[in-house]
Amino acid sequence: MYRNPFTPVFGNEPPVLAGRGTLISEVLRSLENAPGDPNRVVVFTGPRGSGKTVLLNRIGDLAEEMGWIAVHTLAAPGMLDEIRDQLERKAADFLPKRGKSRITGLQVSGIGGTREFPPERELGWRTQMDSYLDVLEGQDVGLLLTVDEVKADVEDMIGLVSVFQFFVREKRNIALLMAGLPHEVLQMFQDRTISFVRRAFLRKLDPVSLPEVRATMKKTIELSGRSIGSEALDEAANSTMGLPFVIQLVGYHAFNQSQRKAVSLVDVQAGIKDAKQDMEHMVLDASLQELTPTEKRFLHAMLPDGDTSRVADIAERMGVTPSSASHYKRRLIDRGVLHDAGRGLVAFDMPMLKTLLAERCGKGA
Ligand SMILES: Nc1ncnc2c1ncn2[C@@H]1O[C@H](COP(=O)(O)OP(=O)(O)O)[C@@H](O)[C@H]1O
Ligand SMILES: [Mg+2]
């Protein structure tokens, strides 16, 4: 019985990482360098399934192997507390046991119904983190913070960034890695309250190259004790469009077709079919579900084009005025379905969504 080694679940670390080597080594090198290295404040961006969460976790693990402490959090209310609590757990060996000092913090955040007063909380958090950073520094231990699923409008996110810039100024031995969907990241970069973020390096998680997809699928299959021929491998790799989630999904289904030692071309073809169904369900239906009929018409009107569409053409195809087309464009961008490609152009945020939509329309559905 061979065990399926693929991990088609969001956030699950795959046994073999495809691509991303440069992104990882840039950050790791910056941790070895002195504080102030620009690669210590990075924003990773890419569509769903491009591997952002996995990348943050991976870099965190490698940083811990280098003796750093890595604290992982999501951009959400309460994230500052979460960061502090995790740090206290992970650095329990270094940090002094916390006394009653936290009571103040609890009182501030615990007043039922009334709004917290962020600057005070932020200040409290900063003071506490400062004292922890002093201790870590004494032990020559750096602190890596990762923030997944960034959103500009989360108050604690703004709090974190504004405190973090002081840490940077004070040359603390820290790093901040953030990750988010392109439209969220764009919004964050435009938010004036956290202009510090604009100094972060922006790194895109582009589709993984075909040779790397091939190598990853082969290695992953071989880890399980099975094998795959080059024709079957080509077919599998070609079907993924370089999207990490699809690498896992196609691999997973191809693997499940049989228990023979070699994964065959027929297995791969059947696996791709199963993977497509899952993708349709998870990506296409999930995305379309949230849209109004007119927003869907807008997307359909983009299908005849290549990577980008002119808003003017879409308006014409839909038979609406350019200004109402712009209005729908805006809404679809806010929903994270499209992004502005500049000069009156729009593009699907997730190319796969377009492919799936085109295929469904082709079927007359
Ligand atoms: N570099 C990679 N190589 C192969 N598979 C990956 C890679 N990164 C992520 N995956 C897989 O892709 C899927 C999505 O990863 P995840 O990090 O959750 O994406 P995101 O956070 O961008 O939505 C998971 O199934 C994961 O196992
Ligand atoms: Mg994620």
Q: Any idea what the CATH superfamily of the largest domain is called?
A: P-loop containing nucleotide triphosphate hydrolases
Q: Low-confidence parts, pLDDT < 50 over ≥5 residues?
A: 100-117
Ions, cofactors and other bound molecules: adenosine-5'-diphosphate, magnesium ion
Q: How many beta strands in the DSSP annotation? A: 10
Helix-strand category: alpha/beta
Strand numbers in spatial order across the main sheet: 2-3-4-1-5
Which CATH architecture of the largest domain?
3-Layer(aba) Sandwich
In angstroms, what is the radius of gyration?
23 Å
Terminus-to-terminus distance? 40 Å
What is the CATH topology descriptor of the largest domain? Rossmann fold
CATH class of the largest domain: Alpha Beta
**Overall average residue pLDDT:** 88
The major sheet is characterized as: 5 strands, parallel
Percentage beta strand: 5-15%
Count of the separate structural domains: 3
